[in-house]
Amino acid sequence: MNALAVDCASNTLTVSAKKNNDFMQTTMQMGLRQSEKLLPIIDSLLKELNLSAKELDYTALTIGPGSFTGLRLGAATLKALTLANGTPLYGLNSLDVYAHAFLGCGKTILSLVESKDAEFFYALYENEKRITDVCVGNADEVFNAIASYETVIATGPGTERLISLADETQKAVLKTVQPHITDGRVLFNLAEDAIAKKEPALKDYDGPVYYKKSEAELVLERKASETPST
Does position 215 have pLDDT exceeding 70, yes or no? Predict the structure, then answer.
């Protein structure tokens, strides 16, 4: 199958494309510059594979949790391809994607994405499935969630930050395999599993899944609470 996948859930932008068995990927630390680089990277990868957007069988992306701006950017870009060419778009939970490569290792997996305000989005996995809801909390709350485990494999773009906040006891529990880099083949595999199960693609009105309120929403709530009632 021909496909395009995007992960914009963190400051690390990953774009992957495949044409049948040929696969290419670009991963860059972009911060707020993702909007400048996403379309040129997509265009470059498709050209390298001699593949046009009209030939894509589907697209896939991480839809959250993660960066508000990044998630909106990825969704808007791939939805444009859906609008232009009718290409089905499949949305995947970011934490599920990051945990996927380690699900068969027999250990508890902690998948996490760094958020603003010194917080993390995180979830735990065992026996090849997620065993908690997606949670939002500070480092102490994450450490409390794994305190009863002897060993936890940490993965995802929030791993480095969490380890920097850990004490020696907590570091002894946390194990990391390598610096986090999203593997686009995981997005392709999960999307094609969904296709095989005849799960629906995203609808026009579907978008990123947010697990906490944006700064704009919080500002509006504060203003509303400060407005005197009449």
Answer: no
Q: How far is CA 89 from the centre of its chain?
A: 15
For residues 211-218, average pLDDT: 65
| Termini Cα distance of the chain | 61
E-strand stretches of the chain: 2-7, 12-19, 22-29, 58-64, 89-93, 108-114, 119-126, 129-130, 135-138, 152-155, 174-175
Looking at residue 65, what DSSP letter applies? S
Under the banding of pLDDT at 50, 70 and 90, the label for residue 78 is very high
> Of 201, 181, 215, 206, which Cα lies nearest the Cα of 69?
215
Task: For residues 70 and 83, give the distance between their C-alpha atoms in angstroms, rounded to a whole number.
Answer: 20
Paired tokens of 39: 């379309």
Residue pointed to by tokens 């735990």: 124
Q: How far is CA 9 from CA 35, 55, 71, 83, 202, in A?
A: 13, 26, 6, 22, 17
Q: In this structure, which long-range contacts are made by residues 159-165, counting pairs with CB atoms below 8 Å and at least 24 apart in sequence?
A: 159/112, 161/114, 161/120, 162/112, 162/114, 162/120, 165/139
Residue 173 pLDDT: 93
Check residue 214 and give its pLDDT.
60
